[in-house]
Design a protein that fits this description.
By secondary structure, the protein is of the alpha/beta class. It has 3 domains: about 45 residues; about 190 residues, 2-Layer Sandwich (Endonuclease, Chain A), CATH 3.30.870.10; about 45 residues. The protein is about 70% helix and about 15% strand. Strands 6-5-4-1-2-3-7 form a 7-stranded mixed sheet, sandwiched between helices. Helix 2 runs parallel beside helix 3 and helix 6 crosses helix 8. The longest helix has about 70 residues. The chain starts with a helix and ends with a helix.
Length: about 290
């Protein structure tokens, strides 16, 4: 009975022993796998090829840095080009605006002189103006002054009273002489030297006011207004009349200028005076004749 019992016990415990053997074998396999992996890692680390790849990666770092710097340089150049183009475009826009503004001012200036010519053409009784008398410096200004001179002559022939006030300054003699020769009565007032207001009152009911772009009595008229109001005209006429009574006559002031010049240079010729003052020689001779008396 003992032998059958032993065999039976072996049969019953055989699955357990089999499981134990399998578990032990698996542990040995796992340990062997770990050992193989460790050996492989050590072999790779100590392999010359592995060292060479690491050295190659380090050597590639400067090349990558140089590439990034090159990209940054290209972007910087592109930015500078855009800024330059933007500034050029801004300057072009500014130049265009200046040209448009200049054109608009020229239109306003032309409209002002057209209005002045119109009221002078229709003047019946009087033309009284306070002007700067600046020397014309452009062909356009010459044409405008000549147009006013023509209207003065035409109005004078109709019996219109024409009076103009100018700043008391030697450089206004040329324009004053031209206005006087056309038929206007001229006087000079020192207070107009610091005034940039210029106006003309026609027939005591139409006022033409000229304005400059900047403050200054030498600045040319750029635009103006025509005001058909008798009450408004009276305001300017009162100012005009007060200054007219205080002003110096054309002949007297011109005589003082010539006397002062001749006191420093007694032998100066009338031809040279005419050239310097830009006044006809006959006019200088007339003034000098009055002085001789």
């Amino acid at each position: 009975m003992n032998e059958p019992s032993t065999e039976l016990f072996k049969e019953l415990t055989e699955p357990v022993r089999r499981i134990q053997r399998n578990t032990t074998s698996q542990r040995l396999i796992n340990k062997s796998s770990i050992a193989h992996q460790s050996a492989a890692y050590l072999f790779c680390c100590t392999s010359p090829k592995f060292k060479t790849s690491r050295i190659y990666s380090k050597r590639n770092l400067p090349d990558l840095t140089a590439a990034l710097l090159l990209v940054e340089l290209i972007l910087l150049i592109a930015t500078l080009l855009l800024l330059t183009l933007g500034r050029r475009e801004a300057k072009a826009r500014e130049s265009l605006l200046q040209q448009m503004t200049h054109t608009a001012r020229m239109v306003s200036r032309q409209e002002y002189f057209n209005s002045l010519h119109f009221v002078m053409q229709n003047a019946k009784n009087s033309i009284k103006g306070s002007i700067t008398g600046s020397h014309p410096t452009t062909p356009e200004q010459n044409d405008q002054v000549q147009g006013i001179l023509n209207h003065i002559g035409t109005a004078k022939s109709r019996g219109v009273e024409i009076q103009y006030l100018l700043p008391k300054s030697q450089d206004r003699i040329m324009v004053a002489s031209a206005y006087k020769e056309a038929g206007a009565e001229i006087r000079f007032h020192p207070g107009l030297l610091v005034s940039d207001l210029r106006y003309t009152v026609v027939d005591n009911n139409h006022t033409v006011i000229g304005l400059a772009t900047t403050t200054g009595q030498n600045q040319p008229t750029r635009e103006g207004y025509v005001i058909p109001s008798e009450g408004f005209a009276q305001i300017f006429l009162r100012q005009f009349q007060d200054r007219w009574e205080e002003a110096v006559g054309y002949d007297d002031y011109f005589k003082d200028i010539l006397s002062e010049i001749k006191s420093h240079n007694p032998t100066v010729s009338t031809q040279l005076l005419s050239s310097q003052l830009q006044v006809p020689e006959t006019e200088i001779q007339r003034i000098l004749g009055i002085t001789a008396r």
